[in-house]
Design a protein that fits this description.
Layout (H helix, E strand, L loop, with lengths): L1 H15 L4 H28 L6 H103 L5 H28 L7 E3 L1 H11 L6 E6 L7 E3 L1 H17 L5 E10 L4 E8 L6 H4 L17 H11 L3 E7 L3 E9 L1 H10 L1
Parallel strand pairs: 2-4
Antiparallel strand pairs: 1-3, 4-5, 5-7, 6-7
Helix pairs in contact: 1-3, 2-3, 3-4, 4-8, 5-6, 6-8
């Protein structure tokens, strides 16, 4: 019975809340007067069946009964308002949740679109480079080889020459080496050879690469390569090129000296090995980080911006990935993740 009464009262309140305040006041007063009259008549008629002096008693009881009706009405109204507020709050929370999901989806889609645009731009640049790389590369290497042989001959026959002559011969040889490296980067950037995977010990490959890198005395090399690190399945020559480029970039980022930290770790579950090469240089500006792996982009003098393109191409060709984290003024960390024995062999079978 109380449930039916509450439900009836709530329905009445919901209907009353839909009308104007003026009509509500008139209706409420009319109902109150009517209820009061009915209460007085009922009490008096039940008392002795006649309208008499018992009206005085009814006049005392009526306000209490009116109050009970008013309290019941107010309680029902508060319950209705509370329920409506709860529904609105729940709807608002659901709207916020949907907005958050929509914003996350929009942000993810925007990130995907930007990544696709960057990859398309990168592919277009590589295609443009490919049109001229073979012809220009080979045409440049021939005279560079001749000049290098000529410098070697002059250094041999002029071994007793004065210091200035020997210094300039050394400068010429260095410039030839720089030009030859640029040609090699150009060819490697647009003509990635298919990998020939093999099981490689990362510590040994890194040691061989460091021996071939020109690391000044002002740069301290710190290595953290666990002895328990599993073998990786990559092309040894590709790995050497990737490590050489990253170490060279790190050294060049510290012209005044600093620390070169090389760390490696394994993910047993994913069967991958990650190599992180960190420098203590000046870091990379945020507006440049998104373009690091784009062909022909560089912030260094006398560079054509192909070293990191080679790094990315060769890493991807071997089933790996490369990421960079850099804070201006604090240095940069380039991390490459390469497949282990199981992942590498499975990818080779699929290919």
């Amino acid at each position: 019975m109380p449930d039916i009464f509450n439900r009836v009262m709530k329905q009445a309140v919901q209907r009353l809340l839909r009308i104007s305040s003026r009509r509500f006041a008139v209706l409420f007063l009319g109902v109150a007067v009517l209820v009061s009259v009915l209460i007085v008549l009922t009490i008096d008629l039940l008392w002795d069946g006649r309208l008499s002096a018992e009206l005085e008693f009814a006049g005392v009881v009526t306000p209490f009964l009116d109050g009970l009706v008013l309290v019941a009405f107010v309680i029902a109204m508060l319950d209705t308002i509370r329920d409506e507020a709860g529904r609105r709050q729940q709807a608002e929370m659901e709207t916020r949740r949907l907005n958050a999901e929509l914003e996350a989806k929009v942000a993810e889609r925007s990130r995907q679109v930007l990544a696709a645009q960057e990859e398309l731009l990168r592919s277009e640049k590589l295609a443009l480079l490919g049109q001229v790389a073979d012809t220009v590369g080979h045409e440049l290497r021939n005279p560079l080889g001749v000049m290098n042989n000529a410098v070697y001959f002059l250094q041999t026959v002029l071994a007793d020459a004065d210091a200035t002559t020997l210094e300039y011969l050394g400068i010429i040889k260095g410039e030839i080496a720089d030009a030859d490296r640029i040609v090699s980067d150009l060819l490697d950037a647009v003509r990635t050879q298919p990998p020939h995977p093999a099981l490689v010990n990362l510590a040994e490959a890194l040691a061989q690469t460091l021996r071939k890198c020109d690391i000044p005395a002002a740069v301290t090399v710190r290595q953290d390569i666990p002895h328990t690190l599993p073998l990786i399945r990559v092309d040894p020559m590709h790995l050497h090129q990737v490590l050489w480029n990253l170490v060279t970039n790190a050294v060049e980022a510290m012209p005044e000296g600093g620390e070169l930290a090389i760390r490696a770790s394994a993910d047993i579950v994913a069967d991958t090995v990650t190599v992180a090469i960190e420098d203590s240089g000046s870091g990379i500006a945020p507006e440049h980080q998104a373009r690091l792996f784009q062909p022909m982009f560089t912030t260094k003098a006398r560079r054509v911006g192909l070293g990191l393109v080679v790094v990315k191409n060769l890493t991807l060709a071997n089933g790996g990935s490369v990421v960079v984290v850099s804070v201006p003024g604090q240095g940069s960390v380039f991390s490459i993740t390469l497949p282990g024995q199981t992942v590498g062999s499975r990818k080779n079978e699929l290919s």
